[in-house]
Amino acid sequence: MKILLTLALCAVSFLPVADVPQKAEDISPLLIGETIPDVSLQTIDGQSISLTKEVARQPTVLIFYRGGWCPYCNRQLAELRTLEPDLKKMGYQIIAISTDSPANLKSTLDKNELGFTLLSDADLTSAKAFGLAFKAPAAYSATLEKGSAGKNTEKLLPVPSVFLLSPQGIIKFEYINPNFKERIPGQLLKVAAETVRG
User: Fold this and answer.
1) What is the dihedral of CA 19, 20, 25, 27, to 10 degrees?
2) Of 57, 56, 63, which Cα lies nearest the Cα of 35?
């Protein structure tokens, strides 16, 4: 009997564990109507904050981007900067989350002259909780190591995404594209923000 139990336990230990997807196309993100998880992120000053507490303040445009090293992300952040006055008039705040360490976030904030909140998810706990994380190609290893200050030990990336959230943390709209070069057009984001606010 002990031998059977031992064999059964050994067999269970070799069962595949739910793992992070190998490709961006294989992610399973949260869906419209779902509530976001309460995850802890770091500010540019290294302080831990609760995402749900930040979102509870007002409707939120929540962005997941790859990092300040990504030219497509920097273009998206620059476009958000131009949209920010209109989004604020609609009652939204903008929060952008990346794999960057707090120190690297500060650099991105200064370089792009951004007025909205950047938060660090250097170990990708949040990206995993949102179902956005996937294994990065090996070519990104050094970049991710440096950008996250060594915290991205699994060498993951988030699929760039935009969520429009209610103060209760309910997803009202989302744009998720596994092709990191394709980002939501600013005009579409503005129309979506107006529509779901209403």
Assistant:
1) 90
2) 56
Q: Which amino acid would we find at residue 87?
A: L
**C-alpha–C-alpha distance, residues 129 and 36, integer Å:** 8
Q: Which residue is listed with tokens 């309910």?
A: 170
**HSE-CB of 53 using CA atoms within 13 angstroms:** 6
Number of residues that this document lists for the chain: 198
Concatenating the DSSP letter of every residue in 43-66 gives -TTS-EEEHHHHHTTS-EEEEE--
C-alpha 180/C-alpha 187 separation (Å) is: 19
Query: Residue 67's closest CA among 77, 58, 57, 59?
Result: 77
Residue 102: count of CB within 10 angstroms of its CB: 18
pLDDT tens-digit map of 131-182: 999 999 999 999 999 999 999 999 999 999 999 999 999 999 999 999 999 9
Global pTM value: 0.88
Per DSSP, 90 falls in state T
Whole-angstrom CA distances from 105 to 65, 101, 177, 188 are: 12, 6, 23, 26
Rounded Cα distance, 64 and 158, in Å = 7
Tokens coding 29? 């993100």
Listed by start position, the domains of the chain span 31-60+82-174+185-198
Residue type at position 74: N
Is domain 31-60+82-174+185-198 given the CATH code 1.10.1660.10 in the classification?
no
